[in-house]
UniProtKB/TrEMBL annotation:
This is GTP cyclohydrolase II. The keyword Isomerase does not apply. InterPro entries: GTP_cyclohydro_II, RibA, RibA-like_sf. Pathway: Cofactor biosynthesis; riboflavin biosynthesis; 5-amino-6-(D-ribitylamino)uracil from GTP: step 1/4. It comes from Streptomyces klenkii. Residues 1-147 form the GTP cyclohydrolase II domain. Its EC number is 3.5.4.25. It catalyses: GTP + 4 H2O = 2,5-diamino-6-hydroxy-4-(5-phosphoribosylamino)-pyrimidine + formate + 2 phosphate + 3 H(+). Its cofactor is Zn(2+). GO terms for molecular function: GTP binding; GTP cyclohydrolase II activity; metal ion binding. Signal peptide: none annotated. Keywords: GTP-binding, Hydrolase, Metal-binding, Nucleotide-binding, Riboflavin biosynthesis, Zinc. It is an enzyme of class 3 (hydrolase).
Length: 179
């Protein structure tokens, strides 16, 4: 495990390396979600995505970047406020805007710099989020392949996943009748 300080965004991000680094390693950029990653909240899909990623990385090798971008960058306090607004009917992006934030504050320049410092410039990226791939490319990381994550849907995160697919452009296929 490598921890990084002094990055441009001032956050202490972490890289976890699984085995020796291949020419084109599998990489997961995972944004911090205390509620999902640690406490198993069913409001989102973060916990199962992190588990799936670590299982894949343990099997094939690669790098997990755990990015301290709680709540898509708005922080835990504000995310909890956003959850209250979602309980009143707003979707995950509208709730951010109601709190005077943009939909997604995350910038992946630090992630690109972390990869470069590990000698990684070409990757297979484990994500459904097109913005992660596009930003990494703009910061000089070649995304050779985008490997989709599983879809971890339940009755509590259905609205959240739907918003990510419909408004966030995520590659999530929501087939009616499946959970
Ligand atoms: N503001 C806000 N943030 C949320 C909400 N639900 C989850 N999050 C945050 O969204 C982020 C999700 O991170 P990731 O799983 O890395 O990213 P993703 O954009 O879903 O893309 P994938 O790579 O496909 O998983 C975490 O920082 C969560 O804390 C919400 O309702 N509001
Ligand atoms: Zn989450």
């Amino acid at each position: 495990m490598v921890t990084f300080t002094g990055l441009g965004d001032g956050l202490e991000h972490v890289a976890v390396q699984f085995g020796p680094i291949a020419d084109v390693p599998l990489v997961r950029l995972h944004s911090e979600c205390l509620t999902g990653d640690v406490f198993g909240s069913a409001r989102c899909d973060c916990g199962p995505q992190l588990t799936e990623s670590m299982q894949l990385l343990a099997a094939s090798g690669g790098v997990l970047l755990y990015l301290r971008q709680e709540g898509r960058g708005i922080g835990l306090y504000n995310k909890l406020d956003a959850y209250r607004l979602q309980d009143q009917g707003l979707d995950t992006f509208a709730a951010n805007r109601e709190l005077n934030f943009s939909d997604d504050l995350r910038d992946y320049r630090s992630a690109a710099q972390m990869l470069q410092s590990l000698g990684v410039t070409r990757i297979r990226l484990h994500t459904n989020n097109p913005d992660k791939a596009a930003q990494l490319a703009s910061y000089g990381i070649e995304v050779v392949e985008q490997v989709r994550t599983g879809i971890f849907r339940n009755e509590n995160n259905d609205h959240y996943l739907r918003a990510k697919a419909e408004y966030g452009g995520h590659s999530i296929e929501l087939v009616e009748g499946t959970a």
